[in-house]
Amino acid sequence: MVNKENQQLYTSLNNGKKMPLLGLGVYDMYNREAEQAVLWALETGYRLIDTAEMYHNETEIGNAIRESKINREEIFVTTKVNNSDHGFDKTLRAFDTSLQKLNIDYIDLYLIHWPIKHARKETWLALEKLYQEGRVKAIGVANYLIPFLNELESYATIVPAVNQVEFSPYLYLKDLVDVCKTKNIQLQAYTPLVRGLRMNDPKLQRIAKKYDKTPAQIILRWALQHGISSIPKSANLQRIKENFNVFDFQITQEDMSFIDTFNENLRVVEDPMDLF
């Protein structure tokens, strides 16, 4: 169920936790740049901030959250287990370290960043322990394509709340969308804007012109109307605002179906299946 609130769209995760559908990704941002991007995003209206231990900016993200003076309960914070921290005990220690760096009372969503071979089960069971102890509000996975989800189902006692994957109109993983809906897992897209590689696509530009929006806004709106969360990354104030300005229009079903045909299986990040 999706509802509108302060312009932002929210979804209810499978444990009842409310999560904004649109957020800010902070990959490849460091020091004051990371803090400033988060401050700008929160001022703009974003309430979902996605970081990871691997990004080496958890301290800065926490600083920005406190500097914003926005009530902590209004901000949804995601971070992730680094590849080097897989395993039951190492994951528990990694969570403590992330919480300390962020310097916040709790984490809203904790994800397995990549499905590393031989340690997926132990890492997931550690996340279940953290959740059962109430130390994190929701747990999930990232880069889990269908074979990984099927494997997870064989030992998990908790269904992941979120599955964060590379996803865009040019990497339209329709089968994964359907599986996640069936399993009641919220799909979340990273690199939804394909790092700018397809902004000059004449098909996309034609639709953008029709709605008097930018190509990036069309892509993000397309994802929202599919019920998919997106975390576009930007440290540029103008783009941060542009990416958030997607709540005042609707793409027609005809145009949604047309955008669905843009798939090229285009990846800008490694294929998770190389790890299976």
From TrEMBL:
Can you give the residue ranges of the NADP-dependent oxidoreductase domain?
31-263
Note whether Lipid biosynthesis occurs among the keywords.
no
What keywords sit in the KW lines?
NADP, Oxidoreductase
Q: Which residues form a coiled coil?
A: none
EC assignment: the record states: 1.-.-.-
If you read the UniProt record, what top EC class would you report for this enzyme, in one word? oxidoreductase
Q: Which domain of life is it from?
A: Bacteria
InterPro entries this protein is in? AKR (IPR020471), Aldo/ket_reductase_CS (IPR018170), NAD(P)_OxRdtase_dom_sf (IPR036812), NADP_OxRdtase_dom (IPR023210)
- UniProt keyword Oxidoreductase, yes or no: yes
PROSITE patterns (alphabetical): ALDOKETO_REDUCTASE_1, ALDOKETO_REDUCTASE_3
Pfam families, per this entry?
Aldo_ket_red
Among SUPFAM superfamilies, the record links this protein to: NAD(P)-linked oxidoreductase (SSF51430)
UniProt GO molecular function: oxidoreductase activity
Question: Family per UniProt?
Answer: Belongs to the aldo/keto reductase family.
Under PANTHER family, the record lists: 2,5-DIKETO-D-GLUCONIC ACID REDUCTASE, NADP-DEPENDENT OXIDOREDUCTASE DOMAIN-CONTAINING PROTEIN
Q: What is this protein called?
A: Oxidoreductase YtbE
- As recorded in Swiss-Prot or TrEMBL, the protein's gene is named ytbE
